[in-house]
Specification:
The structure holds 2 protein chains of 2 kinds.
Chain A (H helix, E strand, L loop, with lengths): L1 E12 L2 E12 L3 E5 L6 H8 L7 E6 L2 E2 H11 E4 L11 H11 L4 H14 L15 H12 L6 E5 L7 H16 L3 E6 L2 H7 L2 E6 L2 E6 L1 H8 L3 E6 L5 H10 L3 E5 L2 E5 L16 E6 L2 H9 L6
Parallel strand pairs in A: 3-8, 3-9, 6-7, 7-8
Antiparallel strand pairs in A: 1-2, 1-4, 4-5, 9-10, 11-13, 11-14, 12-13
Helix pairs in contact in A: 3-4, 8-10
Chain B lengths: L7 H15 L4 H23 L1 E2 L2 E2 H32 L2 H6 L5 H29 L11 H20 L8 H15 L11 H9 L2 H13 L6 H27 L2
Antiparallel strand pairs in B: 1-2
Helix pairs in contact in B: 1-5, 2-3, 2-5, 3-5, 3-6, 3-7, 3-9, 5-6, 5-10, 6-9, 6-10, 9-10
The chains are: A alpha/beta, B mainly alpha.
């Protein structure tokens, strides 16, 4: 069953079409990734789904409720973790959680119990009476995640949840999100970290210029757009033309990136042998979602 | 216009909690200033002015000072205070991701601003009473008047905030609007001492009917035509309140 469904969702700003007729369905219990370069429309899409920004056109249903008429009810089911820190600077860690719980009408005792629970989940118990300015950037992000869980949401909306985290904290967050998914919490994850999308997401949508270019499991996207392995060929400049010709003659799927050739969809190793003479270098590596991302959204800067 | 719901109380509670956590950093100054003005002007200038409308000068200005500083409290709270919450701390964004709506947030801000007016007005009233400047039990209605006045000025402040491009914009609001009202709404001089043009302008200023009511309550001079002043305040409060809900929704839900 689709827990989030959008139909022809469109967001227009003055002279910019931020989201262009997007129809998608997020299944109950899955982690759905939204990938795209800066300005692709991810945040605009998320702001509409969280009922913060009204769509220019189109419809949104969350858990069967039309967002236009039931935004208050829907927001009670959502745990929103924003990209920008909007914690309450004038309150302590625990007070931040207690105050937020009150927005959801959670009774005081219950709010306190849950606050302590989410603080321990993100290893922040010892900071519960600290002021916000005493927290590191990583602790603030963990607190934002903890705050997003205070209403026991059925759906978490996560906008770059591990941005700026050190590797330890990043793995902790990934681990917690995986645990939450196993408890049945649906996740809509906006990220530019391809490793994160590969680790966490069941399906990812790649967005570009307001549209969804492709939508599938990470593994199938990789198989479809780049194959399982990427061969990288580095040749010096006088070999360049010959290499291009040779690659074309052999009918290979390749791209030239910064003086390097990347060859995709290699079914048979023989198709590449002899391509490079002793002066060049050839390297094969596992294909990643990043290759798919770059192929689909282009290599030049979007903005 | 979309209506607000009872959930606005959550925003009011948040602001209250933070105010009482940090009150020592703001409240003493907010109360010290009107007391200094009251005593300096009342006793200092009062020694030269003599009687105004049959009262000692300090008695004349006390009700006006109450009304004026109640206005300042709501105005500061809902200009600088609200702008910082909205733009710098992104508190509004955090709250509208919960079951609260933009209207709930703005109503909470306005009622909190009005609560600040009520607190300021009540403290000054108490001190004025201690100096025996309050002669009537009608003055017990002053806190209610300050709250109503607070809704009007907080709404107007939020309305301005909804258009403010930067925090510096509030300098205009105070120097061109609030401060002139402080001097031309009958706080320090009877309106009749101004030229007719200034008198007309004074009657447009929303502080004028508040000063009139405040003075009537403190002196116990209750007349039927005070209802006009009251009606004007209520009407302006409802008007500014309603418009600010619309303009704030426009600003926040892009």
């Amino acid at each position: 069953m689709a827990i989030i469904k959008t139909k022809n969702l469109t967001k227009k700003f003055k002279d910019l079409l931020a989201v262009d007729s997007v129809s998608l369905e997020v299944e109950d219990g899955e982690c759905f990734g939204l990938l795209g370069p800066n300005g692709a429309g991810k945040t605009s899409l998320i702001r509409m789904i969280t009922a913060v920004s009204p769509p220019t056109q189109g419809e949104i249903w969350v858990m069967g409720n039309n967002l236009k008429t039931h935004s208050q009810q829907v927001k009670a089911f959502l745990g929103v973790v924003p990209q920008l820190d909007n914690l309450d600077q004038d309150l302590t860690v625990l007070q931040n959680l207690m105050t937020f719980a009150r927005y959801f009408d959670i009774p005081k005792d219950e709010a306190h119990r849950r606050s302590m629970e989410v603080l321990s989940l993100f290893e922040l118990e010892s900071k519960r009476n600290s002021h916000l300015k005493e927290l590191s950037g990583g602790m603030k992000r963990r607190l934002l995640l903890a705050r997003g869980l205070i209403n026991l949401p059925q759906i978490m909306i996560l906008d770059e949840p591990t941005i700026g985290l050190d590797p330890q904290a990043k793995y902790l967050v990934w681990h917690k999100l995986t645990e939450l998914k196993s408890q049945g919490v649906t996740q809509l994850l906006c990220t530019q970290n391809m490793e994160e999308a590969t680790v966490l997401c069941d399906r990812v949508a790649i967005m570009h210029q307001g549209k969804i270019l492709s939508l599938d499991t990470p593994r199938r996207l990789i198989a479809k757009y780049v194959g399982n392995e990427v061969w990288e060929i580095e040749v010096n400049s006088d070999e360049r033309l010959r290499t291009v010709k040779e690659l074309e003659n052999r009918g290979l799927d390749f791209e030239e990136v910064g003086g390097k050739f990347q060859v995709f969809h290699i079914e048979d190793e023989k198709s590449v042998t002899g391509l490079v003479n002793s002066l060049g270098r050839l390297q094969r590596r596992q294909a990643t979602l990043e290759d798919v991302f770059l192929r689909l959204t282009g290599r030049s800067l979007a903005e | 216009m979309k209506p607000f719901s009872w959930r606005f109380i959550r925003v009011w509670q948040r602001n209250r909690d933070i105010f009482f956590r940090l009150w020592h950093s703001e409240a003493p100054g907010a109360v010290a200033e009107p007391i200094i003005i009251l005593l300096a002007m009342g006793l200092g200038l009062g020694a030269y002015v003599g009687m105004v409308d049959g009262q000692k000068y300090i008695e004349f200005i006390a009700p006006g000072i109450i009304a004026a500083y109640a206005m300042f409290s709501a105005s500061f709270e809902c200009t600088y205070g609200s702008f910082i919450r909205m733009e710098f701390q992104k508190t509004y964004d955090a709250i509208i991701a919960t079951p609260l709506s933009v209207e709930d947030v703005i109503a909470g801000e306005i009622f909190w601003g009005a609560t600040r007016s009520l607190m300021t007005g009540t403290v000054i009233l108490t001190i004025a009473a201690a100096f025996q400047l309050v002669s009537s039990p009608w003055a017990l209605l002053i806190p209610a008047l300050c709250f109503l006045e607070g809704i009007m000025f907080a709404s107007l402040a939020i309305l301005f905030t909804s258009f403010a491009p930067a925090i510096y914009s509030f300098n205009y609001y105070f120097t061109l609007f609030i401060t002139p009202m402080f001097f031309f709404s009958g706080v320090f001089f009877p309106l009749s001492s101004f030229t007719p043009i200034v008198q007309t302008l004074s009657w447009i200023a929303p502080l004028t009917p508040v000063v009139r009511l405040s003075r009537a309550l403190v002196n116990g001079e209750i007349q039927l035509d005070l209802l006009w002043a009251l009606a004007l305040i209520v009407a302006l409060a409802i008007l500014f309140f309603s418009i600010s809900l619309v303009t704030m929704r426009r600003r926040l839900t892009v």
